[in-house]
Amino acid sequence: MTTLTIKEDDLMGSEIAALLQRHLDHMFAITPAESVFALDIAALRVPEISFWSAYLDGELAGCVALKDHGNGLGEIKSMHTLEKHRGKRIAYHLVKHLIDEAQNRGLKRLSLETGKTEHFMPAQKLYERFGFTASGPFADYGPDPHSYFMTLALA
């Protein structure tokens, strides 16, 4: 029996720093640099961002962040599951946790930016399962030929 635990993370540990660096390295490997909007660990350590790590049987398996843009808008950032844990529903539980948190905080809408290439199709399909739909740029984003924007209205 496996146990998944999701807990708020202060981003001070070396393990999460390494995971976030792998995430950035992966994004830069598959996306032109000017279209990479993933944040480094320093940029995630701001008051408007909350960050959670997922542990499978005590082992770090993935992470997700929620950025509060104000005016009821939240953004999903830093969604990543370690390759060895993909297919174990880690990402599903992280997105569900983030949606619940956003609703508890009174946010009205969640939006995200992901890529358009085949690499990002599993992420797009995951978000679609939760009701996210294609949308245009939001917050500080502008049009980008490599970006795919999605949004979900929260009740």
TrEMBL record:
Keyword vocabulary terms for this entry: Acyltransferase, Transferase
Domain N-acetyltransferase: 14-155
Pfam families the UniProt entry points to: Acetyltransf_1 (PF00583)
CDD domains named in the record: NAT_SF
UniProt protein name: GNAT family N-acetyltransferase
